[in-house]
Amino acid sequence: MIVVFGSINADLFVTVPELPKPGETVLSPGYVMRPGGKGANQAVAAARAGGDVRFVGQVGKDPFGQTVLKAIKNAGVDTTPCRQVDDVTGTAMVMVDRAGENQIVVASGANQSLHPDLVPAPLLTNYTVLVLQMEVPVEANEALIRMAKSHGARVVLNLAPAYPISEQALDGVDVLVLNEEEAAALVGETLEPARHCRMLARKHGTIVVITLGGKGAVMFGEGGVWKVGTLEIDPVDTVGAGDAFVGAFATALDKKQKPRDALHRASVAAGLACLAEGAQTGLPTEKEISSVLPRLAAPTLVS
Ligand code: RIB
Hints:
Shape: globular
Number of strands: 15
Bound molecules: alpha-D-ribofuranose
Distance between the termini: 33 Å
Helix content: 25-40%
């Protein structure tokens, strides 16, 4: 079973010719609201990839709340532990320019009071893969990592966005997924990704995956550094590609696949997710991932 504890947002997408510079105002013809939030996206990605998924999150008492919750329920995620609180639903302003570059500001709202007690204790067992990200209070994630460890659950932490978290919590993580900027923020310097992976993996005794956008991903696990590329695609929208990666990776782990196979499936899922607008719209099913898998070379051991 996969338990995702994290953020759920209403994403307000605006297209702009160019992303605004500080002090600049740019016009956009309108906006589209789409369900999002790293936690919710990862829950949907894991469910579509074939996982049995529970989501633990909070929405506000505004019209967005029920809409975004319904979207993840319709995708097959069990939202029973979720709560509606006296706050606004998390809302992300997502600006996408002509080149497909994006800039996101998240107004946290209900996500900022998410408490670890909302996770029913029976959900954390040695059959559980707990998936966490950083759009909710860090103390909540730290407490859940401790609880997960004491119940034998495995923990996947997506350090996005890269806020500080205790060394002890990182020591309790089984798989750490982050991008190059997040890895640099965590380590305090920019290194070659394979070196970053190795260094973090050795320090915290965890599998480390660094995603490289259009260049694929590297992973330290199974005794060495593995590299995988990406599908040859024309991306329509890359928002949520990282979440597709994490969700598919967690599902593969939950299904007892090797980390290198999880890496392969996750990279395919991330590529397929870029073929539709919105963070949750294009998330691929298990069948879609499997049928496209042969189009991407399997990860190779590089060092
Ligand atoms: O990772 C993409 C997500 O980041 C968006 O859906 C947005 O809600 C922000 O949380």
